[in-house]
Amino acid sequence: MWIKILFILSNIWYWISEGVTEGFTWSSDSRRMDNKLIRGGQSHSSYLDGKGIFCYHTWRAFGENVGMFGMVIFAFLLFNIGLTNFILLLAGATLISIFIYERFFNYISYGKLFPQKNDWDALNGIIKIPRAPWQDWVFLVIGIILTIIGG
Q: Residue 33 and residue 24: Cα distance in Å, rounded?
């Protein structure tokens, strides 16, 4: 039971860190300076003096890498739950984590947890997928259901 929880938490920690660093990459200069989670991390960075608790590279090294390492280790320790249950657990944890990733990405980039976003545009406009905040909630609900079934 604890290994499953640690696997899910590692997945979430990875995606939080990914959301923070990617949000920083895509955010405006003022958002880079004003958010409280991330700041620049190089001595030549104009964002070094931002308000964030960790620098960009700390989020990369200790956020993304520790989360990924935890997922790999705990996945290895879950070998006895069976492939189907593991896939359900992985899919559920990932969907929950994507919901959380979006919150951190949106906070860093837009200063809001649920901003109105443009449609997803793929293949140079050939494919457009409408975006709405309710879609994130669907990911969360499906993720919780899959995690319960797989766990």
A: 10
Evaluate whether 3 touches 74 at the Cβ level (below 8 Å): yes
Q: What angle do the packed helices 2-26 and 65-77 form, to 10 degrees? A: 160
**Cα 136 vs. chain centroid, distance in angstroms?**
12
- Count the Cβ atoms, other than its own, within 10 Å of residue 71: 23
Q: Which helix (H) or strand (E) holds 110?
A: helix 83-110
First-to-final CA distance of the chain: 8
Q: Are 151 and 89 in contact (CB under 8 A)?
A: yes
CB 64 within 8 A of CB 21: yes
Query: Helix 83-110 vs helix 133-150: angle between axes, to the nearest 10 degrees?
Result: 150
The rounded distance, in Å, linking the Cα atoms of 2 and 10 is: 12
97 and 9 in contact (C-beta within 8 Å)?
A: no
Distance CA 116, CA 132 (A): 7
Give the tens place of pLDDT for each residue, 18-74: 999 999 999 888 888 888 899 886 655 555 667 888 888 889 989 999 999 999 999
3-state secondary structure of 64: helix
